[in-house]
Amino acid sequence: MSAIADVPALTEKTDVKSDQTLSGWPVLLEALRMALESVMAHKLRSLLTLLGVIIGVASVMIVGAFISGLETYVTDNVTDLLGSNTFIVARIAAVDLNQEEFEKRLRTHRDLRWDDYEYIRSRSQHAQEVSIERSTRQDVHYKGLEVLDTTINGITANAPRMSNISFHSGRFFQEFEFSRSLPVCVIGWGVKTELFPNEDPIGREVKIAGRNYRVLGVMTRRGSFLGQNLDNQLYIPASAFAKMFDVRRGWTIRVRTAPGPAFEAAQGEVRTLLRGKHHLSPSQPDDFDILSTDEINQSVGQFTGAIATVVTPITAIALLVGGIVIMNIMLMSVTERTREIGIRKAIGARRRDLLLQFLLESAILGITGGLLGILLSYSACYLIEALSDFTLTITPGYIILALAVSGGVGILAGMYPAFKAAKLDPIRALSFET
Fold first, then answer.
1. What single-letter DSSP state applies at residue 375?
2. At what angle do helices 293-336 and 51-82 cross, to 10 degrees?
3. What span, in angstroms and rounded, lies between the C-alpha atoms of 270 and 349?
4. Per-residue pLDDT reduced to its tens digit, 107-143
5. Beta-bridge partners for 290
6. CA nearest neighbour of 257 among 106, 416, 89
7. What does the alpha-carbon distance between residue 19 and residue 14 come to, in Å, rounded to a whole number?
8. How far is CA 224 from the centre of its chain?
């Protein structure tokens, strides 16, 4: 049977309509319908074609979720530990020092003393709260039970106002208990669990470095941060800490201010006060560090940005491979459907109609791969959160980016096959034998 004799049957089967009767949106809808039918006609092949795009999109989404989750995790915990509108002053407090700079500051910076705290507290006009703190590690005992290597924090009575300390029961020590160096303490949830599994610890006495401390309160469960157990902690008055461990130097000063301009003004004021007290000339650098929560969060942003710069291009390779696979399958599809293309051209289909159909087909493959990749990334994030107790955050921006990139990859991969199909000569196409 001749090629011309095949035309009625094939045109009836594919429901090809003459381009003379279609224009505008009907042309687009018809091309979309035919592209969908072509993709659905080879479901398994289409799914295998999408594997590269699926894996690429899922990889990019998981990396983005990890970066967003890490930023949220660090920001929330830093704000919880340091407090909002708060900065610390210490001998060395910078977070992005290399080894050489660290050793240099270790030689040139000086330990802060208790009188530095008193000096700032009595003279600062912009500070709302000023505290002093230092920590060490000791075993804590109670009736034959013990918690090893507990972080003992000596701090002032205004600590709950300085940072987000919340209580499960009891209270924090008061100003009169701090000023009198009374042996009182507030314990973390982990200490309570280990030493008082079956009784209320309030009013009981725990032993630290051979001295008894009466428990005033228990903090709520806080978990861990960067490998540090925040529940294995205990707070005592900084004045009692100084006497018990004979500490005169090495303190950290924390300052809280009002938000906005007062925050910057307070940092400049504290710097000026300490430079004057330490008798530094204008040409001499600071012999102490000032670190704010904003600087920590900025450093975290730079760190996660570096991760994204390195990891994202690697994961994008899977998208490139997926695009190559889509192009290969589309070229195969053009070859398989050469006679169909010839028939469509013979009954009036224009080049742009064929170009539109094949571009839509490749775009559908790319976008479908993007949607499946997003579903896979959500499943993977859910599994990672269940196993690691780390929150991964998939933001709407990454979803939009994934769909845009996967659709773009599909269109770019389909351009050459689409142009090849559109340029086919109808006479040669009708005589093509598969």
1. H
2. 170
3. 78
4. 888 899 999 999 999 999 988 889 999 999 999 999 9
5. 89
6. 89
7. 14
8. 17
